[in-house]
Amino acid sequence: MQDDAFWDTPVQEPLAPRAGRRSRGNRAATKVERVETRGRARALQALYAADLRDLTQLRKIATHVFDDLAVDPGERQFASRLVATVADKCAQLDADLAQVTNNWRLERLGAIERSVLRLAAAELDRNETPVKVVLQEAVHLAERYGTTRSARFVNGVLDAYARKLGRL
Predict the structure, then answer these.
(1) Cα separation of 79 and 63, whole Å?
(2) Which of 26, 9, 6, 8 is nearest to 17 (CA)?
(3) Alpha-carbon distance 20 to 70, whole Å?
(4) How many CB atoms lie within 10 A of CB 167?
């Protein structure tokens, strides 16, 4: 085939993997996140925005964040429940977290770490999700939006928090 003929031939689209099956080579490309996982990320975004602006306006800020991002209804419902728990019990959650953050005041933490801790504490308070799932998801969020050090710190604090609650 000559070079000119190559550019004139129609482009063949790559084959898409069959529905319901994962390819062995690239699991990340076919992996679909659960609604709850995406909802936690949306709730974290709202908590972070409120932490930087005005935490007393958390519900209003969350509504704006969810509207701006056109959040899926399932994700929005899950995230809204977590945001409502933080809004209703923020002072108590902060006091409980302060008891297990040895040598660290919450206001000295980074906004991401503080938001992840509040989010996980609210989810543990709701008692609808297994503790290990809450911890794993929180560590994943801290690593994804923060750093590896953030993830280790969040893991340690939440482990102590869950033990304090008698859930681990």
Answers:
(1) 10
(2) 26
(3) 27
(4) 14
86 contacts 58 by C-beta, under 8 angstroms:
yes
* Rounded-to-integer distance, Cα 38 and Cα 73, Å: 11
The angle that helices 73-100 and 111-126 make with each other, rounded to 10 degrees, is 100
Output the six-digit token pair for 60. Answer: 């209003």
- Mind listing the pLDDT tens digit for each residue in 125-153? 999 999 999 999 999 999 999 999 999 99
Query: What pTM was computed for the model?
Result: 0.80
The 3-state DSSP class for residue 133 equals helix
Q: Per-residue pLDDT tens for 147-159?
A: 999 999 999 999 9
Q: Which residues of 47-79 are buried (b: 16+ CB within 10 A; e: fewer)?
A: bbbbbeeebeebbebbeebbeeeebeeebbebb
